[in-house]
Amino acid sequence: MYNNSNLHLILGGARSGKSRLAQQRAEQWLQSNNAGGLSYLATATAGDEEMSSRIARHQGDRGQHWQTIEEPIALAEALDASPKSHCVLVDCLTLWLSNCIHEGVWAREREALMQRVDQRRNNSENNAAPWIFVSNEVGSGIVPLGQLSREFMDAAGWLHQALAERADSVTLAIAGLPLTVK
Fold first, then answer.
1. Marked catalytic residue, from 8, 58, 86, 160
2. Contact 130/7 with Cβ under 8 angstroms?
3. How many Å separate Cα 59 from the centre of its chain?
4. Ranges 78-87, 119-128, 155-164: which has the least confidence
5. Is the peptide bond before 92 cis (omega within 30 degrees of 0)?
6. How far apart are CA 159 and CA 136, in angstroms?
7. Chain-centre distance of CA 17, in angstroms?
8. What is the dihedral of CA 6, 58, 64, 12, to 10 degrees?
9. CA pair distance 152, 161, nearest whole angstrom
10. pLDDT value at position 123?
11. Which of these, 103, 100, 101, 96, lies nearest to 133 by C-alpha position?
């Protein structure tokens, strides 16, 4: 069931059902409103054939009523440019994090996102269409041996904590089932 809040964070492991859950929540929001639309803000890039197939499958799962925005780096700017009447589903934050680390812009882009989220929460955007962020929960396993992997895991954990603090709702997807955390 759709929870009428402004900022959602949905976390889960690989194949946990987090993207499907986020899409269902966005579509429920659309059904419960007389106006508005749906935007899918994709952070993935098709670097190989398998990823191209994965992206095509996700696109096929969404209906024609979805507007797709592709932005692998400038997430805050893309959120600013998205239609204010649209529920925006961002999928996924950990791919965005990887892109930003690879390009050497992580600190700047993280700060821009946090400023944008804070601005939205502190200003008159409380009645705005919701934003739903999807991310991989990577902190439940062992600490990786490699430095870059540890830096990624740490950055993802800190990002999740910062967004969870600001979010109206946080859900953990496990085996396709939602577990309400906040």
1. 58
2. yes
3. 16
4. 119-128
5. yes
6. 11
7. 13
8. -20
9. 14
10. 78
11. 96
Question: Which tokens is 134 given?
Answer: 């999807």
For residue 131, give both structure tokens: 């934003």
pLDDT at 81: 94
H-run or E-run covering 182: none
Which run of H or E residues covers position 169?
strand 169-174
Q: Describe the strand order of the beta sheet including 169-174 as a list of residue ranges.
A: 66-70, 37-42, 86-91, 131-136, 7-12, 169-174, 177-180
Tell me if residue 8 is catalytic.
Answer: no
Question: How many residues are recorded in the chain?
Answer: 182
Beta-strand relationship, 169-174 and 177-180: antiparallel
Place of tokens 């959120």: 79
State how far the alpha carbon of 158 is from the alpha carbons of 9, 23, 111, 172, in Å. 14, 25, 12, 16
What span, in angstroms and rounded, lies between the C-alpha atoms of 171 and 7?
11
pLDDT digits (tens, 9 = 90+) for 35-61: 789 999 999 887 788 877 877 777 777
